[in-house]
Design goal:
This protein is an alpha+beta fold. It folds into 2 domains: 33 residues; 82 residues. Helix content is 27%, strand content 44%. It has 1 helix and 5 strands; from the N terminus they run αβββββ. It has a 5-stranded mixed β-barrel. The protein is extended, with a radius of gyration of 20 Å. The N and C termini lie far apart (67 Å). The model has no long low-confidence stretch (mean pLDDT 86).
Length: 117
């Protein structure tokens, strides 16, 4: 009887691990395959500086949140999908923006602007 319970528990753990792997894989793939180009009017652009660390060292992350007539977007200055040259866009101007990624605003995840025309 004990073996059936431990077998069911092992199956549940493996199943949970597989589901987690599928969800994470979807998130990673969405950053590669969901690229689109649309015309946007910029309503605001906010620079965000986030510093983390302690007495042993610290790091500062700088990025921009851009609000447009079609939603909010992220401009990264370092890492994957980084396009720091895009941070020069101006409020109340219209641009052809190329974006990549997924948007889940309630957890702070936005599509990244990767090109401005």
């Amino acid at each position: 009887m004990r073996n059936k319970k431990s077998g069911a528990g092992a199956f549940a753990k493996v199943f949970a691990l597989l589901i987690t792997l599928v969800i994470v894989s979807f998130g990673v793939l969405a950053n590669f395959i969901n690229e689109k180009t649309q015309r946007h009017t910029v309503l605001s652009i906010d620079k965000v500086e986030s510093t983390e660390g302690d007495s042993d060292g610290f790091s500062t992350r700088i990025y921009y949140i851009v609000s447009t007539d079609r939603g909010a977007y992220h401009i990264r200055t370092a890492g994957f999908n980084a396009a720091p040259e895009c941070a020069g866009i101006k409020k109340d101007s219209t641009y052809l923006l190329t974006t990549r990624g997924i948007s889940v605003p309630f957890i702070g995840v936005y599509e990244c602007i990767i090109k401005v025309q």
